[in-house]
Amino acid sequence: MCPECDAQVPVEDGVERGEVVTCPECNAELEVVGLDPPRFVLAPPEEVDWGE
Amino acid sequence: MRVGMLCSRIRVEEKLLRDALVHRGVDVEIVDDRELTMTLAHPIRRWDAVLERSISQTRGLAITRVLESWGIPTVNTHDVAATCASKLDTSTALEAVGVPTPDTAVAFTPEAAIQAAEDLGYPVVLKPVTGSWGRLLARINDRDSAEALFEHKALLGGPEHSVFYLQRHVDKPGRDIRAFVVGDDVICAIYRESDHWVTNTARGARTRDCPIDATLRQMSLRAAAAVGGGVLAIDLLEDRDRLLVSEVNATMEFKNSIDVTGVDIPGRVAEYVCEVVRGAPVGVGG
Hints:
The complex is a heterodimer.
Chain A: E1 20-22, E2 29-35, E3 38-42
Antiparallel strand pairs in A: 1-2, 2-3
Chain B: E1 2-7, H1 12-23, E2 27-32, E3 49-53, H2 57-69, E4 74-75, H3 78-85, H4 87-96, E5 104-107, H5 110-120, E6 124-127, E7 138-140, H6 143-156, E8 164-168, E9 175-182, E10 185-193, E11 206-209, H7 214-227, E12 231-239, E13 242-249, H8 258-261, H9 265-278
Parallel strand pairs in B: 1-2, 1-3, 3-4
Antiparallel strand pairs in B: 5-8, 6-7, 6-8, 9-10, 9-12, 10-11, 12-13
Helix pairs in contact in B: 1-9, 2-3, 3-4, 4-7, 5-6
């Protein structure tokens, strides 16, 4: 369930803990923190030192 | 062989790299940099090497520093990643060995930055010394824009805004080139095409295979060697009939480059990591 809007967030095959998915209802970026059952937290916002 | 893969989040690249390592018989441990604790006097001894894929350059640099102090090889090495994390360090490394790069200047006050911009000649590009994905790039076309932008930057404050890093704008042909260097080989290259002057794929640029000719190969290997070598993405600009190296990236993203080049980029990186673990001499570019 999306922590932002309570929508059910589908988890596709192959998704792993630590991945970021998008809520289909509110477009929030969510980090997968559990898979059985699926659990999400809001993904941390981009920081100035992120990159390649 | 046991390899730690340092991550902040699991992206397509991290999955592909893990799978490529596992395919080569490597026991891979995903290490979340947000959960890691390192007591300096008590080394963690369960990795033969660590592949650094942190999305945070600060964390990646801190962790590789400690790992290397424990004698654990890292890909890339701390010094290489540190050089690439700073555009100024990269520029000075390239200049030191004569690798062509856009004319670059630094200044530390808005007034001095205006002078530096005028010395370079408009348009100039203002970049953050640390930063990626095309973030906070500004093309400055004239003195009015420069004064406004530098005043804003000074008022924002903080160390990241205290250095004015400027480059002469290169009027590239709607694209730049990214060459992927692994050890002493340029394994593939792509064009990054965009109608916008910023041609990062993070900003929507399209990718297309770029043939590797002798000039591109030599320039890429020289740039890789200048920063210390390893697994690197070299960004180059076409400035009329010559190439300029603009940046070198030490934690490269490549998901948009595999299909267009047909090159198994994660596989080549995995092989390099295995070579590092075996202690084989690995090339450092040209």
